[in-house]
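Example record

One chain of 258 residues, shown exactly as stored in the release files.
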Amino acid sequence: MLNFPPNSPTREDQQWVIAHEFGHEWFPMVVGSNERLYPWMDEGFNTFIDLGNAAKYFAGTPYGDTIEVHPLHLYPEHAVPGNEQPLIEKPVEVRDLFWGGYQKPALMMQMLRYEVLGKDRFDAAFREYIRAWAFKHPTPADFFRVMRDQSGMELDWFWRDWIFTTARLDQAVDSVSRGPDGTTRIHLHNRGTMVMPATLAVTYEDGTTQQVRLPVEMWNLGDVFVYRVPDKRPVRRVIVDPSQALPDVERSNNQWPR
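Predicted structure tokens for this chain:
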């Protein structure tokens, strides 16, 4: 593959465009997905790798230390109900290719790596996808299958929300109560149509804090879930997604008390 990146106004922009075009040697030139039908498997995967690459290359600078959150910051502007389209739709009919082809799939891959599978499990599965489909022509189903088999996790719920729909995430803390047995209960609510694991930052009355990680299976029985604090300690404060890592569309309900 031969490419001629133009001069860019900044060193960061120049590095990005060169690395991005080099990245196309792998996607879709080695792993030969159909970039016309599925640009998220081409430009999206490439952009996802660019973000990690730029963060490492410029580590220790404001740009390098913040570039990976760029797609998350773009979410409110581009994931507009009624305008956003599922990634699976034909690219010639996409109104916002910058989002649907590049940034949203990159955000999707970040969520899968950091929030669902974890870096080690994701990286091993993604490398196996690249190895298994080098010099071949994978479809979305082939990618889904490898990531499921190699990670050991059923991911249909994830692909449905991120690729086949425009589901939106809204995790909330409805209330905190004390049961008759003295157990503190944190009442959580999934008010959107997207499901994701939940992270809670719990502050107890004695001033101590704890992070609680709840798996996505918590939503299997519906859109409400009650977390029972194991040692019955009274709770002063609860925050859902305290690091603001998820694309939650309504953060005013992420904290109790309001």
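Notes: The radius of gyration is 20 Å.
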